[in-house]
Pentatricopeptide repeat-containing protein (Macrolepiota fuliginosa MF-IS2), 497 residues
Amino acid sequence: YTPPPIVRSSFVFLNALLSVDQKDAVVIFRALVDSGHIPSEAMVDSSSSQTFEQIIQMTLVKASVYWNWNDIADDILSRLLQSNPTPDSFTIRHTIDCLYTFLISPSPHSLHRCFNLIRLLHPHSPVPDSLIRQFYQCAVDINAPAAAEKMYDFSREAAILETHSYPAPQGRALTWFMHCVAEKSKKQYLVRTLASDVVEHNIPVSLDRRPNFISTIAQRGFASAARALWERYATGKDGPMIYGDSSLMLRMTSLFTNLARQKQSRLNAPEDSISHEIEMRKVAELRSFVGHILAKFKEHHEPWEDADHRAMTSYARACFIVGKNAEGFDIFKVLLQRLELPDLYDVNVALSAIAKQAPEAASKMVGKMEEYGVQPDAVSLGTVLHHASTQGCKEVMEEMIGRVMETQRIHSDVKAFCVLVKAVVQPEEDDTKETRTLKLQSAWELVRQFTKRKNLVSTELGNYLVSLAIEAQNASLAFNFWSVLLKDSAEYNDARQ
């Protein structure tokens, strides 16, 4: 049974009438009770301390929830909390009861109303932690990440934490919420906050979700939390799920290797600080931790002759990341002996490591790739060309440019060409003016030959190359890029062109 619309309207009218004419309000209230539209379950217990108006308002709230008119209940409670600077225990108690009721059959709207009331109620009385946990669980059940994000963000505001520390999502809600925030939210700082909560409050992460959970944190660059959780869960009988996971091993290796390199590059600069030796120890400690990650992974998966293909390619890739090129190639040799080929992504990682050390050797590797049936792509060729340009290896530069122009896909895929050119000119921290010019000259040769065949290139690439040429203080190359890529599309009022 659903009451007719006139009953719903009567609830709204009665609430408004209470502050104007209590005598008439009583008449309407009794009529609603006598007709059963205010059921006995909705009648609230009262005492001498409650006013007549309070009793009727809270009864209307309960009756509205009974008939699933949550919007009316929310409106009455919101007005009560906003109009009274010090709501009494009667109002607070029944508001909390109502919040629990909203969560029995949750919907996005009911979660929104629940959050709104919690926000209004908190300055007067923190809501029970069990209610917050139930809120997060409901958000999981109906897949409402926006509601969970609002609640968590609110609960971590400084003003809120001064009065009460609400629980973070837990159990299934924890891993679900981390995924939602990391992948879909603009508030990426919540990833760090949630990770810190898990570490500081020792919130358990379900066994099967641990590798992905830590990997997500590492991918976002939050090293302290990622390491703390890796070390926490890499021990005991379930440790292999952490230190033996390929994706997690790569994320952690990449993150902490980059951290060590960044610290090292700062130490290589002129440094007068008395903390220089301390920083050197930090670099050594970071590298030691990376070594520990690799050693545990290797120990878990050896012997390589019997290891899983993905574990082997992941370990080889990690070796190239940390500079253990010989060991990485030893893994590839085992794969080839098993008549298994690493995928192109893994090969490109190896190629990048070699090209950085010796572009000539990388050029030969491109030829070997083709012999083994692995066709180099724009990234492969662009990587070698990038490092050859950086080091001024003209023969390799000419060879790679020739290979690029022989690749049919390049001429039909403008996006692939743009990826290639950007890979060639990719700026690096230690680039000199001469190095930048060499890379831009390679890019110019690619653009010149590409456009000579009447292929079109996006103006976005043109703007990018012109900007880099100007930064390198090379007016000639800047003009060349502009004349070929931008001139015909330039408008008189386009400041960038």
About this structure: Residues 244 and 299 are 9 Å apart (CA to CA). The radius of gyration is 33 Å. Residues 1-127 form one domain. The mean pLDDT is 89.
